[in-house]
Amino acid sequence: MKSSQEGDAPTGRGDGRKRQEILAAATERFGRDGYEHTKWADIAGDVGVGPTALYHYFESKQHCLYEIMGDAIEEFRARFVEITTNERDPARALTAVMVNSFELTEQEVNRNRVLVSEQGRLSRPSAAQPEEDARQAARARTRDLEFAWASFLESAMRAGAIPKSDPRLLTLAILGLYTSIWHWYRPTGIVPLRHIGEYFSRLALAMVGASPDGLESERSAA
Amino acid sequence: MKSSQEGDAPTGRGDGRKRQEILAAATERFGRDGYEHTKWADIAGDVGVGPTALYHYFESKQHCLYEIMGDAIEEFRARFVEITTNERDPARALTAVMVNSFELTEQEVNRNRVLVSEQGRLSRPSAAQPEEDARQAARARTRDLEFAWASFLESAMRAGAIPKSDPRLLTLAILGLYTSIWHWYRPTGIVPLRHIGEYFSRLALAMVGASPDGLESERSAA
Q1: pTM of the prediction?
Q2: DSSP A73-87
Q3: What is the CATH number of the domain that holds B110?
Q4: In this complex, is the C-beta atom of B196 within 8 Å of any C-beta atom belonging to chain A?
Q5: Which of A44, B33, B50, B172 has its Cα between 20 and 30 A from that of A211?
Q6: Looking at the domain assignment, is residue B33 inside a domain?
Q7: Which positions in chain B touch A176 (Cβ < 8 Å)?
Q8: pLDDT tier at B45, thresholds 50, 70, 90
Q9: Inter-chain touch A180–B180, beta carbons under 8 Å
Q10: Residue B15 forms part of a structural domain
Q11: What would the pLDDT profile of B114-144 be if each residue is shown by its tens digit?
């Protein structure tokens, strides 16, 4: 995870390591207990600092949430760009992205859950400045991710690798389908993530109109 | 919209007409300004009663939200059952359901937006009793909707109308794809709902493995 405010950031908010610790603790609390039910002071306790010291790093609980969301979205984009740059064949790249999207640590699953259950907050302006800046940044990263996907799909359409349609709507459909999983998926459930990933990857490829042939070999190579 | 508490309900909460007025006003506020940013007193003002009188109908803003969500989910289920009972051919029934899912009034679009942006709340227990009862009821209705879909898909698979796979995961995928639309769709956007409905119906049929052939004739007949 790379944050634009990592290290000694322009805003001067704390050092990178402690900041990452706070983000990790907050992600776990938000994912497990819900954002609203999480107390800022409990996060402070998790990382062994007083509640006041927390304000050295984040303006508020909301500020912290927006940073978590922005980082998660940026990481999705970076992974996507890396895979689609390394694999020039559109169908194989698409398959590789799908497989990669389900290779997640427990913390990443938790972060996805936070992202989807709180995504509605990104559409409502915040009255406080650092919060509003972080919200705008997360929204800009969402647009960047969508743009990367739509550009990729458009190239694949032009190359004849997938049927022509509206690349932007197709992007929203793929991201929407993927996002929906984290509303109901629980690590303790009876269906393993590997199986869900396989099933939903096939569905996404069917939506795109690409063959699912590469899915098996791609997964065993991963 | 049919609510189980319409008329003189067992809980004795108010008469049906005023209750529906409150639900409509709350849906509009929640959809436009967001649930958190809506004041209970403003809803009272919209329907011309004092804030105290509102408690004759609902225990709290949260109680009202859960009732709106429960009603919306129940209406989806009732529509689905009606269509799939009247049309015995699975592929044609599926197409009819898709077309119907996008024939929405402005208020229904608004309600869908409330449903998706607040759906995370349904997974967290409420401390107060009437709220918790309404939350449990909305969750039970969600399970009923999912069960109706999965049963239908399972029959269609057995009849050979669509390829065999996991009907429950396929249900979650279809509902997840549909739900995702209301996160980004705005009536003021450049893409008309009719076009979005057409596009996403095709994607859903592609996921299911059904032919999109019936989509045009079904839509012109609707």
Answers
A1: 0.88
A2: HHHHHHHHHHHHHH-
A3: 1.10.357.10
A4: yes
A5: B172
A6: no
A7: 176-177, 179-181, 183
A8: very high
A9: yes
A10: no
A11: 999 888 889 888 888 899 999 999 999 999 9
C-beta atoms of B177 and A181 within 8 A: no
From B120's Cα to the closest Cα of chain A, the distance in A is: 5
Candidate from A34, A118, A177 with C-beta closest to B124: A34
pLDDT of residue B124: 85
Q: Do B180 and A173 touch (CB under 8 A)?
A: yes
Contact B99, B222 (CB under 8 A): yes
pLDDT band at B75 (very low <50, low <70, confident <90, very high): very high
| Residue that the structure tokens 């895979």 belong to | A83
User: For residue range B156-192, what is the model confidence (pLDDT) as tens digits?
Assistant: 999 999 999 999 999 999 999 999 999 999 888 888 9
Q: What is the DSSP letter of A11?
A: T
DSSP state of B123: G
Q: Which domain holds residue A186?
A: 62-221
Please count the residue pairs, one from chain A and one from chain B, whose beta carbons lie less than 8 angstroms apart: 81
Please give the mean pLDDT across all residues of chain B: 88
Residue of B nearest to A142 (CA): B184
Residue B194 sits at the chain A interface (C-beta within 8 Å): no
Asked whether the predicted pLDDT for residue B219 surpasses 70, the reply is no
Spell out, as residue ranges, where chain A has pLDDT lower than 50.
1-11
Mutate to test the interface with B, among A143, A180, A184 (most CBs of B within 10 A): A180
CB contact under 8 A, B180 and A181: no
Q: Give the Cα separation of A35 and A60 in Å (integer).
A: 12
Total number of domains constituting chain B: 1
The predicted complex's ipTM stands at 0.88
Task: Please compute, for residue B198, the number of CA atoms within 13 A of its CA located in the half-sphere on the CB side.
Answer: 13
Determine contact: B34 vs chain A, CB below 8 A.
Answer: yes
Interhelix angle for A167-184 vs A106-118, to 10°?
110
Give dist(CA A203, CA A104) in Å, integer.
19
Report CA-CA distances (Å) from A147 to A140, A143, A175, B12: 10, 6, 12, 53
Compute the nearest-CA separation of B42 from chain A (Å).
19
Please list every residue in chain A whose beta carbon sits closer than 8 Å to the beta carbon of residue B110.
none
Residue A57 lies in a domain: no
Give yes or no for a contact between A48 and A116, defined as CB atoms under 8 angstroms apart: no
Looking at the domain assignment, is residue B31 inside a domain?
no
Q: What pLDDT was estimated at residue A1?
A: 43
Contact between chains at A117 and B120 (C-beta distance less than 8 A): yes
